[in-house]
Each structure stands twice: as structure tokens, then as C-alpha cells.
Amino acid sequence: MVFRSIPPRKGRKMDGKKKTERDDTGGWFLTAGAAPLSELDLSDGFLFGEVMRDEETCRTVLEIILGRPVSRVVYANKEQQVEAGTGYHRYKGIRLDVYFRDEESTCYSVEIQTRNRYNLPKRSRHYQGMMDVQMLPAGEIDYNKLCDSILIFICTFDLFGEGKLCYTFENTCTELPGLKLHDGAVKIFLNTAGRGETERDGLLAEFLRYVSDHNAPTESPEVKQIRKRVEEVKKNQETEARYMTSITYAREVYEDGRMEGKADMVLEFLNELGDIPERIRTEICRETDTERLTRWVKLAARSGSVREFEEKMHLDLSALQESN
Q1: Which of 21, 44, 185, 258 has the most CB atoms in a 10 Å sphere around its CB?
Q2: 232 CA to centre of own chain
Q3: Which of 21-30, 50-59, 68-77, 150-159 has the highest mean pLDDT?
Q4: Could you tell me if 82 and 130 are in contact, meaning their C-beta atoms sit under 8 angstroms apart?
Q5: What is the pLDDT at residue 2?
Q6: Has residue 228 got a pLDDT over 80?
Q7: How far apart are CA 119 and CA 104, in angstroms?
Q8: How many Å separate Cα 51 from the centre of its chain?
């Protein structure tokens, strides 16, 4: 397996509250009307990643979620990117929102999920496998060197519909439910709208309310500490600059993706009609006007031949030139 940095994949995931879009690997795409940094909740991927750059904040968040002390965080990385495969054998990579290790070599990944795409259980399986693969170098035969890992998804929805704040999964024996596999893998799914049932749940519920609403009251020292860190990040000029840069870059990537996708649709329709002359293919791929590409998609779908499409396309371009 080879691991390298991968760019955000095209494809969108809508968070209607913030008017942002997100792809399955974690890349953020902001549309018109994106909220300013000062108004973001901690459920926003950019803000969450910036806040979790601080190792002490990582530890505090973990202790709230796990309900126990956590050793010092020694490594934290925002948007850990992993791609597996070599040569022609490439496999789906992942982008972890926040990835870190503590001094006891337990690995953690904390992911923010604002929309239920009904694939999170299988997605968590893929993430777990990709996290495991990067722990052992090629040629290593001692599987006991695999670090314990805890994969956490903070969801603004109830994935399982049972109303719980927290759903924790470990591998157990079907015949003997009390018998655990002890493979060191834990998956946790949190529900920001869940109900608490124990005294420990009170702190977790307070934290999760704050994640989804930055105006929610904070009473505990732990959540107040997190809120302080959030406010520091929001006031930081360098963070503001990174946020604005991410908006600009993400809009460009999103627009490029829209144009590329429409051009691909035109070519797909035309391929059904016959061979596409290279001059036509080049003209379609170089087009940057999304409205014109949309018209060409319709033209291609309604044309009976590549030649008919070419004639209609050139009429469309002639009409544009005359209007100018």
C-alpha cells in the first residue's frame, strides 16, 4: 500500500443550515451566502478542524466523549489524507477530519457529519481498514503492533433512531455477547439531539448541544474551555485569512467540477451517436460557460447524429456572437 496526499473529490454533500456543500472525503465547497467565520457552529468542518489543532482541546473533547481520562495528545493533524494502491491498482482514499494519537499510541479519528447519507456504518468500516493499514510497515508480521483505534462520528442527526446521545460499537461474540474480541477497534456515533440518561451524559449532552449551536449555554469548565478556544480561533486573523482562501478555492473547484461534469455529459450523449471529431471534443472540453454547457447537454440528448449536434452547437455559438 502507498499513501499520499489526495485532492478533494468532486461530488457534493449539502448542509442546508450553513449553505455549504461537502464531498464524501471531507473537502469543503462553499456556495453563495456562506456564513462568516464568526457565525459558524462547531459542526462546521473548517472551524472544527481549526479548533482541534490544539492538542489540549483534542484531549478535552476526547475525555468528554469517552467519559474517562485520556493521556497527553502527542500528534494532531487536520484533514489526514490517505490513498491506497500502486500503479493501476488504486483504491478509494479517505480524508479524516481530525486524526491524532495519544502518548499511549492509541489512534483517534473524529469526523463531523451533518447529513445522513445512509452509508455511515459501511463508511466507518472502510475508514477503520484504511486507518489500520497505515499502522504497519511493509514486511511487518507482528499484528500486535497495530495500535488501538477509536473512530468517532459526531452527527447532527440520530443515525439509529433510538434517541441516544452515544452509540458505541466493539466486536463481540454472537453466541456469547459478553465475550469481546479485544481487537482494539472501537466505533462511536454521537447524536447532537440525543437525550442523556446518566450523570455522565449531562456533560456530553452539553458539549453536543454546543457543537450544533454556538449560542447554546455552557456551564461546565470543560465545555467553557472549548468555547474559549473556539472564540480565540474565530478572532484569529490568520484563521480568518485561511477561511476566506478556502472559500475562494472551494468555489473555484466547485465551479470547475460543474463545468467538467456537464462537458462529460455532452460527450457521453455524443458517444452514443458515433465517433466524435477531435475538434468538437476539444471545443466542448474548453467551454467554461455553464449555461451554454447545459444547453449543449440538451442538444446532445435530442440530436440524431454527431453532425446534427455540431450544426446546432455552432448555431448556438453564432447566436452568442451576434448578441455581443
Answers
A1: 44
A2: 24
A3: 150-159
A4: yes
A5: 31
A6: yes
A7: 31
A8: 16
Return d(Cα 151, Cα 155) in angstroms, integer. Answer: 13
Please count the other Cβ atoms lying within 10 Å of the Cβ belonging to residue 56. 11
3-state helix, strand, coil in the chain (%, to 5): 45, 20, 35
pTM of this prediction exceeds 0.70: no
Per-residue pLDDT tens over the stretch 274-306: 888 888 888 888 887 878 888 888 888 878 888
How many angstroms separate the CA atoms of 263 and 280, rounded?
A: 11
Strand order in 107-113's β-sheet?
73-86, 89-102, 107-113, 149-155, 185-191, 166-169
Q: What is the pLDDT of residue 296?
A: 87
- Alpha-helix runs per DSSP H in 7-161: 45-51, 55-66, 120-133
Within a 13 Å sphere around the CA of 313, how many CA atoms are in the beta-carbon half? Answer: 23
Find where cell 458505541 sits. 168
Instruction: Please name the helix (run of DSSP H) or strand (run of DSSP E) that holds residue 112, with its range, or none.
Output: strand 107-113
Which residues have C-beta within 8 Å of that of residue 128, sequence separation ≥ 6?
A: 149, 151, 185, 187
Q: What is the CA radius of gyration of the chain?
A: 24
Question: Contact, 213 vs 41, CB < 8 A?
Answer: yes
Specify the pLDDT at position 245: 79
C-alpha cell at 269: 450523449
Count of residues in the chain = 324
Measured CA to CA, the distance from residue 189 to residue 166 in angstroms comes to 6
**Is the predicted pLDDT of residue 113 greater than 80, yes or no?**
yes
DSSP string, 142-186: -GGGSPPEEEEEEESS-SSSS-BSEEEE--B-SSSTT-B---SEE
Q: Say which amino acid occupies 190.
A: L
The string of pLDDT tens digits covering residues 118-161 is 999 999 999 998 888 888 888 888 999 999 999 999 999 999 99
Find how far residue 188's CA is from the centre of its chain: 17
**Element (DSSP H or E) covering residue 34:** none
